Amino acid sequence: MIVNLLNPLVTHSSKKMMSDEDIVEQYLLTGNIHYFNLLYDRYNNKVYAKCAAMLKTESWAEDATQEIFIKILIHLSRFTKSKFSTWIYSITYNYCIDFIRKESREKVTSLDEYSHIDIPENLGLDAEILEMNVFKLRKVFGFMHIEDKSILLMKYLDELSIKEICEVLNKSESAVKMKILRAKERFIKIYQQQQGVSA
Predict the structure, then answer these.
(1) DSSP 8-state secondary structure symbol assigned to residue 188
(2) In this predicted model, what pLDDT tens digit does every residue of 169-190 receive, in sequence order?
(3) CA 23/CA 179 separation, integer angstroms
(4) Domain count of the chain?
(5) Contact at 8 Å (CB) between 155 and 165?
(6) Which of 81, 104, 127 is the last residue of a domain?
(7) Domain for residue 144, yes or no?
(8) b/e for 129-139, b at 16 or more Cβ within 10 A?
(9) pTM of the model
(10) Helices (DSSP H) in the chain: which residue ranges?
(11) Same-domain pairing of 89 and 139
(12) Dist CA 127 CA 87 (whole Å)
């Protein structure tokens, strides 16, 4: 359980109904920490869940969540995206990837080589992934590279659009579509190997 280290949350109903963007604006105008706590209350569980899915231990996920919210607080004035939730997701994703790089020294594949390739919207293989139960999904994800796993979680669990994933990864649409395609192909290959089915 993540503990809010900030001031107690204001529970006024009108503030609860404000959009994320309005809350950010009010925080920047007034400096009132209660507005930030509203954002924390809305997103701390989602950020923690994302960290837990990407990192290896609960303690790492808890520490990461607190550090991510400190980064969000410090950099809130830089928020210029149209959707606040995508901005938070981007910070969370990039923090976790940086953490994993430092821990494992894994080399992350560059997507730049795919930036000019035209990839169709319907990339196939969706049915196989969506029809798997949670146990099978977790088992397959356990064998996947962190970037493949993360981009599939964005698409299927978080249901981010291609445009939103582009914002998170800061990559072109073609590069993102190619990354999703490659990740799905590797996902199916791992699943088939586990089931003893030839690819």
Answers:
(1) H
(2) 888 999 999 999 999 888 888 8
(3) 34
(4) 2
(5) yes
(6) 104
(7) yes
(8) beebeeeebee
(9) 0.66
(10) 13-16, 20-30, 33-54, 58-74, 84-104, 126-130, 134-141, 146-152, 162-169, 173-195
(11) no
(12) 29
Decide if 79 is inside a domain: yes
CATH of the domain at 77: 1.10.1740.10
What is the gyration radius of the CA atoms in the chain, in angstroms? 18
Query: Tokens standing for 10?
Result: 């204001």
Tokens of 166: 């582009």
User: Is the confidence at residue 122, as pLDDT, over 70?
Assistant: no
User: In angstroms, how far is CA 22 from the centroid of its own chain?
Assistant: 23
Residue 78 to residues 24, 61, 81, 95: CA-CA distances in angstroms?
Answer: 11, 25, 9, 17
Q: What percent of the chain has pLDDT over 90?
A: 32
Please report, for the domain that includes residue 137, its CATH number: 1.20.140.160
Q: How far apart are CA 9 and CA 1, in angstroms?
A: 17
Place of tokens 């400190």: 70
Placement of tokens 């963007």 in the chain: 21
Other Cβ atoms closer than 10 A to 161: 12
Indicate if 33 and 78 belong to the same structural domain: yes
